[in-house]
Predict the structure.
Amino acid sequence: MDAALIETFEPHEEIELDLLLEAVWRQYHYDFRGYSRASLHRRMARALGRFGLASLSELQHRLLREPAAFAELMGFLTIQVSEMFRDPAYFLALRQKVVPHLRTYPSLKVWIAGCANGEEFYSLAILFREEGLEDRTIFYCTDISPAALTKAEAGIYDLQRIPQFTENHRLAGGKASLSDYYTAAYGAAVFDKTLRRRAVFAEHNLASDEVFSEVHLVSSRNVLIYFDRDLQDRALGLFGESLVRSGFLGLGSKETLRFSRHSDAFADFDEREKIYRRNTAPLRGIADAA
């Protein structure tokens, strides 16, 4: 974390941040109290500039009285940065190493935790279609942001992003042309709505909500990096409780289980691509809600 950034905030500003996060939790029932302080400071500084306010106390005052202001603040509190088949080697590892195990199940559940604007979901839906697993799979696509979920369900992306998506798909072992899965019009690519027929889009907060049961793959990439250690442990506990025995967990390239209190409950499956497998070890005191 960026310690220097934290040090630019005075003690009273730390108190203001605590009070603002508590107000958000009590008024709107979104819990950001376990998010990385450095990340929160960075986002709040941007939000103050956007709202033209001088302090977090002023921002809190406005949020408590203007629900529309909170909806706008959610754009600062939640990071929605992704791309289709991001880190292609991860998806290639899923295709080559994980899919053969998933084929042994008559039905499958996949949880994309922190699905943002849907890029990761469509990546997995396309991969599962190409590998003949789509019709036996239910995809649970969750995020804390209602606006992100709306975009994810729409499946519409700027056409300028498609060349990168296409190259990523190729490097991920794609078996068809990515253009087979979308229609281009008016500067946008609209992904085939049949890719969503097996998907459930739902709000879910890893800080306060509970598990999905009997999941075979959890893919939650570049989410934990925004959490403090306690919230990381809570999220990993949820993932572990959700997974079937020998189920798979995929994390982002900068994330690890190594220092988690739940590390003993998982085994390395593909260490390089941060893919883990649930073993029989018990999870340690899973995730008491904050």
Q: What stands out?
A: The two ends are 22 Å apart (CA to CA).
